[in-house]
């Protein structure tokens, strides 16, 4: 029996063909650790994980019930930026660090956000359909109603790592930029050529509103009907963050009634969406299937980072990225090179 037992739900989420745990295990080599799959139902998972040294969270919610049943767990590790699948409050109460990977695929998500911005602004899907439907002459008149991109305003809601990477990409297009994030110092926002602003200012002045807030309880349905009513009728709303941060019913109403012009979304409130979700049938919506972080390097980089975080904690060291760093002050873990310490999934 291995010295360290890492339990993970059976099956995989955010993975590619091939599966297995060879990449995670690279960092665990020499530690006498094994990754064991457990049933995905709560009772079955608890039975398998109660004596685990670590939890590799994926596929199922790691609830308070599960966390309270853990007797020897030293860390709960996620292979994602978002931590909404883990009850971080419950883990903190038990003194268990929760790690994520906030900096592994920032560039991919930023690329995708800019893709959605440009595709939504230039009505790329509509233009494609016009050509395919033999409506060649309709394309130019449709775009004559749209201003040039240079000089338009891009507003960020939350200004973490992805938003900052988007800002670097948007600057050469001549976009004026502003951001709302009460947790980021104004001077830090200004360093990116972005004007710090209130939420109302971002919503009312922006031609593009790019949502980057993480999925946390305090920002659930952060944007409601009153927020979409503040936006310009010509505005494009972009979301590559998390779907539940937006009250989808209000967004649908905003699109149907013309409060905003277009939505370009990689995330939805419920994924995958129901077949009767109105967004699927709206011409003024561009959709992708929560794929912003995907690239050829995605799975390998993610899995290796998970293995590194597990290995660090099992060796008694601080992890690289911890979303509840206060617990580390009360553990026997050794501070080594605390990159990312104190930064949450929105960093």
UniProtKB/TrEMBL annotation:
Stretches assigned to the D-isomer specific 2-hydroxyacid dehydrogenase NAD-binding domain: 114-292
Q: What is this protein called?
A: C-terminal binding protein
| Ranges of residues in domain D-isomer specific 2-hydroxyacid dehydrogenase catalytic | 35-293
Q: Which domain of life is it from?
A: Bacteria
Give a yes or no for keyword Glycoprotein in this entry.
no
Name the SUPFAM superfamilies on file.
Answer: Formate/glycerate dehydrogenase catalytic domain-like, NAD(P)-binding Rossmann-fold domains
**Keyword entries, A-Z:** Oxidoreductase
CDD domains from the entry?
Answer: CtBP_dh (cd05299)
Classification via InterPro entries: CtBP, D-isomer_2-hydroxyacid_DH, D-isomer_2_OHA_DH_cat_dom, D-isomer_DH_NAD-bd, NAD(P)-bd_dom_sf
Q: Which family does it belong to?
A: Belongs to the D-isomer specific 2-hydroxyacid dehydrogenase family.
State if Oxidoreductase is listed as a keyword.
yes
Species name: Belnapia arida
Tell me the Pfam families matching this sequence: 2-Hacid_dh, 2-Hacid_dh_C
